[in-house]
Structure formats: structure tokens, C-alpha cells
Amino acid sequence: MAGEIAPSPMLSDALVILGAAGIVIPVFTRFRITPVIGFILIGIAVGPYGLGKLVFEYPWLAHITISDPDGLEPFAEFGIILLLFTIGLELSFNRLWQMRRLVFGLGALELIIIGIALAAVLSMMGQYWTGALALGFALAFSSTAIVLPISGTQSPVGRAALSMLLFEDIMIVPIVFVLGAMAPYAQSEGWEGLVDTLWQGGLVVVALLVLGRIALPRLFAQAARTKSPELFLAASLLVVIGASLATAATGLSPIVGALIAGLLIAETEYHGEVEGIMEPFKGLALGIFLITVGMSIDLMTVWANLGMILGAVVLVLVFKASVTGLLLRLMGARRSTAAETGVLMASPSETTLIVLAAASSAMLIQPGTAQFWQIVTAIGLTITPLLARLGRVIARRVEPVPELPEDDGTEPRTIIIGAGRVGRLVADMHKAHNRPYVAIDFDADMIAKAKRLGYRATFGDAARGDALTRLGIESAPAVVLTMDEPVLAQRLVSKLRKEHPELLIVARARDTNHAAELYRAGASHAVPETLESSLQLSEAVLVDIGVAMGPVIASIHEKRDEFREQLEREGHLDYRPKLRTSNVEA
Questions:
Q1: Distance separating alpha carbons of residues 405 and 89, to the nearest angstrom
Q2: Which of 27, 37, 39, 453 is deepest in the core (most CB within 10 A)?
Q3: CB neighbours of 287 closer than 8 A, spacing ≥ 6?
Q4: Does the record's keyword annotation contain Transmembrane helix (predicted)?
């Protein structure tokens, strides 16, 4: 028919991907299985080694297969960039600085020890030392794209995994440059290129930090004034893509720029809106990445070399899990945390594929060797969610947790966010007055400790999903925030106030300045711990040195009134806030 328009291969591939997402996510969610496995299986099925092989025999299969696997790679890379960007949004520069010992201590030890040990084993098996070194460090990497969505960044397992993965992401560029310099015909330009990249990249990072702090608040404030979600999305994409291109232009990994962009936006008041807008894009782009992983698995090659491939997978997983778990134990981690993190971090990474390609192009390893380890890596990525479950099972075995009888959740109860020292004290007071409560925390070790001590506690991330809904927040008499993370507490208060305007929200504040921020965010009461502890110390010392109790109590009330006035003034409030949670005090 004249004028008929045939669908382009790109549109056909987009239809396959969106159709896969529409099938994988609801089906696997229904059976409580991570969609990671589903996307990889879809990649195997629709890739060049699956149904793609039959397209010439059955042309109609072209409509349900990926016609251009290489064309998906930019979208897969974009998915990883968005993942690191959202991780940056969840962090802060202060928290990153607090993790420096883990990043450059645990992260460096993990990568160096595993890389050199695997290189030594491969060298003894006949691989030339340069190729063995390349393979050893390639296999030492773990998957940022799969591990962090599983572990999160708040729990002990998440923090340990994040620190190791951050160091690995930093080391990608130096390792690739060193491999290039080790090539049989490499000249000194490889080392010079590394030095140039480091100083130029350092300048770009400093420029991003300075310009970001100045420009980003103004950019997002302007976008917010328009009340246009489209403009907010455009501004977010502009920032993350611009920062990624800036670091990539100097030779650094684009994910470094994405992480910095996320950290900078996390310091602004618009981080929650940006995180919500970017979440769907991150999930879809990450799904594309997982599909590309599946498309790289040739089932016929796997079957022909099944014994060797499975043996290599098992040996790599067991060795990496053992070394990582041992390092964590030596650095003071609990047995359960060390075991779960070690197993979760055992599989290779999407970065492994990059390093293998660099080693192959530098002629350090043969193409057949590279293909073998690419298949091992793809299988490792596929089973990472299963490793996560295995790690949790092992963690419970090495450090059992007594289970309390579950309540039916029908009775209204106070929700305590945070099961640490302060959260447990709040729970003690509820038990003393026969008031029902439940504590929620994203720290698995903290929940395990609380349960061992007899508290009603459950694992969950109060800032995400329907965790609070499951605990009955609609009927809860109050929510108490006890975590010692000022930025997270402020975000959560703001979110709770928007979703539940009448809810009683009591929040722990670090000091009076933080209390003022919490009141502005919507807290019913904010309790500055530094103020109350200082007043109690003053009361104790004054009474013990002979001052009468009455004047001491009067002076403490007077000092508390002064801070009320300060909070009212600094918080721009039209009422005088309370500094205690009691309703008795005016």
C-alpha cells in the first residue's frame, strides 16, 4: 500500500522492553520474587542467543525480540548513572565523610586482597601474570546496580556494601588505565594519561562542588515557582547528565559525576521531589541494563562448558564471600552482618564486563578467555538476588533472633521510628503505662538486638513504600522519630505531615537549630536532646552542691522558656513550641 509506514527497529525494541516490564514487575511481585531475575530471563529469551536465533526461520519473531542489542547499551549505562544519582540523593556529604574509614579502609582491603589472591590462583593455573592480574581485579568487583537496590544504604549490610562499592567505582578508571599501560605494545602514554585524568578530573569535581552549591538551589527554586513537574524533571535530568558528561570528558567514570550531583541536590530542600520524579526512570533504565546482561548469556555455550562454568562460578562466589566476611569480622562487624554482606557481595559486577573488555583489547587475555569469564559474570549477576536470600538465611543461623508472637495490628499503637537506645527507652515508657507500640528500623542488627531484649520491633524503611501503612499509621495515635540523622528526620517529618495532617509527630532533635527545622517541617513537638541533657546535668550539680530544689526548678523552667522564644523566633512560628512531649507543660 502506498505511503505505508513500517515500524522502525527502535520502536519494535521499545515495545519489547515495555512489554517485558509490564509482565515481569507484576508477576514477580505477585510471587515476592525480585524483578531482577525476571529482567535477566527476559534478556536471555529475547536476545540474540535466544529467540533471536530463530528470526530468519520465523520472521514474525522479530516483533518480540531485540533487533539491535548494542543499541540498548547507552540506555543501560544511563540506568546505572541514575542509580548512582539516587544513591547520592539518599546520602549527604556529612554521612559520606563519616564513612571514609569504611570506604578507604574496608573498600580498599576488599578490592586489593581479592584481586591479588584471584590473580595468584589464575597465574598458578597457567594464565600469564598480566592477564591473571586483569582477571583477578575484574572478578573482584561487585555489582552496584543490583546489590544496592537489594541492601539499601541505611542498614549495617547496606553501609558496608556501599563503602566497598564506592571504592570500586572510584578505582574503575585507574585499573582500566593500568591495564592499557600493561599491554604488550603499550607506551608510556598510558601512565601519563592516568595522571592527566586524575588532575583534570579533580579540577572538574571541585568545580562541580562549588558551582553546584551556588547554582542548584536557585535552579530548583525557579523550577518550583513554575509549579511545572515537566520543568522539574528537565532540571533534574539536566543536572545529572551534565555532571556525568563533565566527569566523563576528563576520563573519569560518568557515575562519579552522577553521585556528586545527587549529593549536591541532597543538601537542598528539593531532594524529596527530585527523588520521587527520578524513581520511575531509574527503575526502567535499570531493567534495560538487566535485559542486556541476559542477552549476553549464550545457553548453548553454557551447556557445552557447563562443568567448568559452574565450577568457576562456585569458586569465585565462595572465595569472595569468605574474604569479605572475614574482613568485616576483623573490622568489628557482627557475625550476622559479616555473613550476609559477604554472600551478597560475592558475585561479579557489570564493571567486570568493562574490565574484561579492556583487558581483551589490550591483548592481556585471549578472546575465548574473555568470553568464558563474561558468561561466569552474567550468571553471577543473575543469581545475586538468590545470594541475598541465602545471606539472610545464613545470618539468622549464625546469630539467631527470638521471635515474639505477632499481634494482629488492629489496635491503634504508637509507631516508633528507630529501634536504637532512644527508641527502646520510648518503648519502655509505653510498656510501663500499658500503651501499645511498635518500633520500625532499617537496621537489621538493631531489630535483632531489640527483639532479643523483648521489644516489639519490625524491619522496614519508614521513608519508603508502604511500611508505615502496614503498621497502621492511619489509626496510630502518634509517630515518634528517634533516629540521630537530622536530614532524614526532617524529610520524614515533612512527608508525614503532608500525608497525615492531623497526626501527632514527635521528633528527636539534635539541638535547638535542628528543632526549629523540624517545627518548620511540620513536627508537633521537637525535643532537643542537647538542651534537655544540659538542663538535667545543671539540676543535678546545683542540688548536690547545696542549692535549694525550688529555685533550681524555677531557673530551669526560665531557661526552657528562653529556648521556647528562640525556637519561635528562629523557626518563624506563629506559636510558642513545646520542648517536651508531655501535654501537661504549657
A1: 37
A2: 39
A3: 17, 20, 21, 24, 35, 39, 79
A4: yes
